[in-house]
Amino acid sequence: MGVAEIAPGIFVHTGRFELVTSGNRGDISNAICVVGTSAVAVIDTSGSFAAGNEFREAIQEITHTPIRYVINTHMHPDHVMGNAAFKAQGVEFVGHHKLPAALNARKESYLNNARERLGETAFAGTEIIAPSLLVKDTLDLDLGGRTLTLKARPTAHTDNDLTVFDSATGTSILGDLLFSGHIPTLDGSLVGWLNLIEVLRGENAARAVPGHGPNAMSWPDAITPVERYLSVLARDVRKIIKDGGTIEEAVATAGPSEKGKWALFDEHHPRNVTAAFTELEWE
Predict the structure, then answer these.
(1) CA 99, CA 84: separation in Å to the nearest integer?
(2) Which of 22, 50, 112, 263 matches a 20 to 30 Å C-alpha distance to 202?
(3) Which of 186, 130, 198 is nearest to 158 (CA)?
(4) Sequence-distant (≥ 6) Cβ neighbours of residue 107 within 8 angstroms
């Protein structure tokens, strides 16, 4: 599994713009490791034990410093299903304080869907591992020579989004609060995400790492396309609701100006519209 060093001590594996299949083993999101002088933190672990294990082996080729933390930026399977590859004595799993409940509620469906899509060979060893170290507001993790600041965010992409900031390099690791090229997916609150983007824009960073997209991007320009897409989605769905339209009409007609600007638009946009309609009809 290839990794690139985007800043001193920060290595990123770039996931594919694909749906989960046995061929890609769930390797469809970015996975990150941050190397300190006394500890390594892994941030997201890909979508299966097989992919996570390959990432772990890549890290061991980079450094002999022990992995101390595995941080999940949110609940989605393509970011957490490789966790089991990092189970070892002394490793702590870290996440938003709402992450355990979210994983528990979807555990069976996540595992069943993964087994079906990955096939038994790629699925083998995959399991749901919830965090034991929980972030309610902010938490600093000392890796030796660098500190990671973890921040629990309000409901946006999901209700358990967590960001990670490396003060040594000014790198902001945003999980799926930042997409590039791959269409954003909505599983939390459209209004909340748009509000959070304004907050994130005010946070200085030398670079940002998206959950899906290139291994590093300039900040805050990187989030402008996400903001545009979500704003178009909100505008179009609100108009349909105001005009008395149905959710089916919204799915068929909302957001046409964004088609062609994002990979996997046809696969994910209808669900985004459905989620947006369900939220906005109660405004």
Answers:
(1) 16
(2) 263
(3) 186
(4) 128
> What pLDDT is attached to residue 167?
96
Question: Which domain range does residue 242 map to?
Answer: 4-280
Q: What is residue 1's predicted lDDT score, i.e. its pLDDT?
A: 75
pLDDT of residue 246: 97
Report d(CA 37, CA 63) in Å as an integer: 10
The share of the chain scoring above pLDDT 70, in percent, equals 100
Which helix (H) or strand (E) segment holds residue 149: the answer is strand 147-152
What CA–CA distance (Å, rounded) separates 161 from 269? Answer: 20
Angle at the Cα of 213 from the Cα atoms of 9 and 121, rounded to 5 degrees? 85
- What domain count does the chain have? 1
- Answer yes or no: is pLDDT of 146 > 90: yes
Please report, to the nearest 10 degrees, the dihedral formed by the alpha carbons of residues 170, 4, 2, 200 taken in order. Answer: 30
Please state whether beta strands 133-135 and 92-96 pair in parallel, antiparallel, or not at all (unpaired). parallel
How far apart (Å, rounded) are the C-alpha atoms in residues 236 and 260? 17
Sequence-ordered list of residues with C-beta below 8 angstroms from that of 130, at least 6 positions apart, any chain: 93, 95, 99, 100, 103, 104
Q: Let me know how many helices (H) and strands (E) the chain has, helices first.
A: 7, 12
Q: What is the dihedral of CA 93, 98, 100, 105, to 10 degrees?
A: -150
